């Protein structure tokens, strides 16, 4: 046996096949064998780790292969299978790899279970069979072969649910971890960190990640640093150190994590160029989060500011991953024309995607689009998305919108009970103006009579909170003595406040106070001003009241002509009393020639509109 001069060369002991790694114990070559017999003795002593072939002089590789082909020792059959898989010292031969693996397994060699699992998993040398693959990989994991666990925990979600129980996998992993498997240690830590198959326990996650880190598990470097960062464990120096080690070992998620630290100056000095470089490396290594890192720099940093590029990064990220919050952000960019031309159709597409994927705030954006006038106005869709937002406590304002839709039949069948339900929901969230809407519904007798007292109490609550609509409705109930004692002085206090805050419905009442000198000195000029303000805001009764003021105030020049004009305007809005007084003016010949026939016609119309004498 000849021994070369000692030299260091890092190697990986392990079976490598397609995308699956079978074993990966790391070590250093300090010798090389040029005698097959001595080499095989050494290999047997070291349990035939595949990487040991690196110790063998390349001129002897063919001799080794010839020897293994005729061996019946299970460990050597397993080694032969690995050579066939990797095409080392021979040509790759999937069928022979499977056959050697199966023979080794049949002789009870533990590692052969792993090789068989891999063959079935990838369909290597045999028909692909996921159920069989998982069966053999689980047994291998129970034997403490950590790499088999690595395959199991990375199964696609659908496959894992069908064939694998997460609790049993955790039990296997814990057993492997206690036996020293660094893969299992990392997985157990991950389970404790995320509450998978076991109760979440940060201290236990820290313990197992730390053990895996000591065994130089690259993924554990990242998980340990992330755990420490999230939970303020370890030291800032340690976090940076292990993110850096994870990057050095090309752990894909680590590039983004370390880049984020440099972007925000967390535990390190801000280094935007370094963060930009790391985000790009994340993308190159298959982690789409790198796009989010670059987008963030393009939004907030002057040096990189570019909203168009930010949008492009978001779109590229969405090509790889589904993320409802990012979908909603893209929707906002198209809605507002940020970094691109305004495009409401595209905004709708992304808002709907975000909502379909569970991001409920997107419902508010959609509701607002369908509320607007013009091309996109759609009452049914506005109601639909407002209701989603309301029922999921996303937006208080949408509660009010849903109630209005039910009350007036906008985009949905009219329903006073449902309108009241949502108005009450709004009031419970201190939207006091909802109490005003409830009060209005009850005022027009669309509510249950047994609830009048509680409605009045809610109006009072809103009024003393200085909510203007509540002040108006509360004042109106007192003004008319509606299910409460009439009190003009108290009513004036609340109605006056409502008018000062611009509640149009209050203008007619304040006009009445000034017209009649109630609670304030009589002031016809102010009365006329308030009546006109009410009319301008769509309150037809204000024009009726202005007509009555002119009709009764003989001190005003041409009072009957002005009254007639006001009654005509109000009559056009089908105000019954205004039609009646038009008839009366023609009957009495006030401001117009007497005309009994026309007067009678107006009286009939007024009655048909609901006018009642002496009411």
Number of helices: 33
Which blocks of ≥5 consecutive residues have pLDDT under 50? Answer: 1-30
Structural class: mainly alpha
Supply Rg. Answer: 41 Å
Distance between the termini: 124 Å
Q: Mean pLDDT score, rounded?
A: 88
How many strand elements? 4
Query: Biggest sheet: strands side by side, in what order?
Result: 1-4
Helical residue percent band: 55-70%
The 3D shape can be described as elongated
Structure commentary:
This protein is mostly helical and about 625 residues long. About 65% of the residues lie in helices and about 0% in strands. The protein has helices at about 35-45, 60-70, 75-85, 95-105, 110-120, 130-140, 145-155, 155-165, 165-180, 180-195, 200-215, 220-230, 235-250, 250-265, 270-285, 290-300, 305-320, 325-335, 345-355, 360-370, 380-390, 395-410, 415-430, 435-445, 450-465, 470-480, 490-500, 505-515, 525-535, 540-550, 560-570, 575-590, 595-610, and strands at about 10-15, 15, 20, 25-30. The strands form 2 sheets. A two-stranded antiparallel ribbon has the order 1-4. Strands 2-3 form a two-stranded antiparallel sheet. Helix 10 runs antiparallel to helix 11 (about 200-215) and helix 29 packs antiparallel against helix 30 (about 540-550). The longest helix is centred in the middle third of the chain and has 14 residues, at about 220-230. It is elongated and about 135 Å long. The termini are far apart. The relative contact order is 0.02.
